[in-house]
Amino acid sequence: MEATVNxxxxxxxxxxxxxEAVSHQAAFIFADISRNSIAVKGRFAVALSxxxxxxxxxTLLGFDPYRSKVEWNHVHFFWAxxxxxxxxxxxxxxxxxxxxxxxxxxxxxxxIHRVKGEEDxxxxxxxxxxxxxKFFGMSGIPVFDLIILGIGKDGHTASLFAGSKSLKKTIRxxxxxxxxxxxxxxxxxxxxxxxxxxxxxxxxxxSGRSKATIVHxxxxxxxxxxxxxxxxxxxxxxxxxxxxxxxxxxRLKGISHDASTRVERLHW
Length: 268
Ligand code: 6PG
Description:
The structure is a single chain. With 268 residues, the chain is an alpha/beta fold. The protein contains 7 helices and 11 strands. The chain has helices spanning 19-41, 55-61, 93-100, 121-136, 193-196, 212-219, 260-265, and strands at residues 3-4, 11-16, 44-48, 75-79, 81-83, 146-149, 174-179, 186-191, 201-206, 239-245, 252-253. A 6-stranded parallel sheet has the order 2-10-9-6-3-4. The protein has a 3-stranded antiparallel sheet with strand order 5-8-7. The N and C termini lie far apart (38 Å). The site of 6-phosphogluconic acid (6PG) has 14 residues, from loops.
């Protein structure tokens, strides 16, 4: 059954034809927000995610028209989560972004704030927190200008999984997270919910038929959404854009399947 969607006032859902359209829209939004942040604050702090969905978006950022629209020397890259593997490993979220575009753009190495996945997970999380504190200031919760997120079929986002300790109230900025499947148990490091919910802008990228059920649970049903970590993302001072392709949105109704008006509103 389809679900009627009533997003929160600070949320927008854009349904696009396919992953290619989602990726272009994400690249457009990235360039637009970077321009505004740099104009206002002199820098743009973004946290990236891993997974298969953002790969094309990352690749597009390395090419025009997007590449030349971004002042890369003012962009600071962080990660919403990282797998505890060396940076050369094919599972590395840093590695994914590096291969796709970071290696191809003129960004200073000191602007890349990766999680050291090769370290012990607790140490990697602590070092990452220290790096964020140095960048954003020692007190308070960082305000990222943009955080890119995906959603798993089980409703996880970043490396916040339902029922995991990392979801509990915390004063930490980043914590180790342990993923039971696939076995053997894998360690990751993730930003915590308070950090994600303090972002100025969250951008979810969702594609494919396999996500239709979870998209319906999180965006289409008021009752179940809080059971899923992705449903707990609601930035108190910021806003969320969900870029969802038609297959993933198959069970939603009541939203326009055309993002063109949104694109015009984002002044390029
Ligand atoms: C990761 C993530 C994770 C991801 C979702 C969706 O490192 O795997 O950050 O939260 O965004 O699992 O992944 P897909 O894009 O592969 O569906």
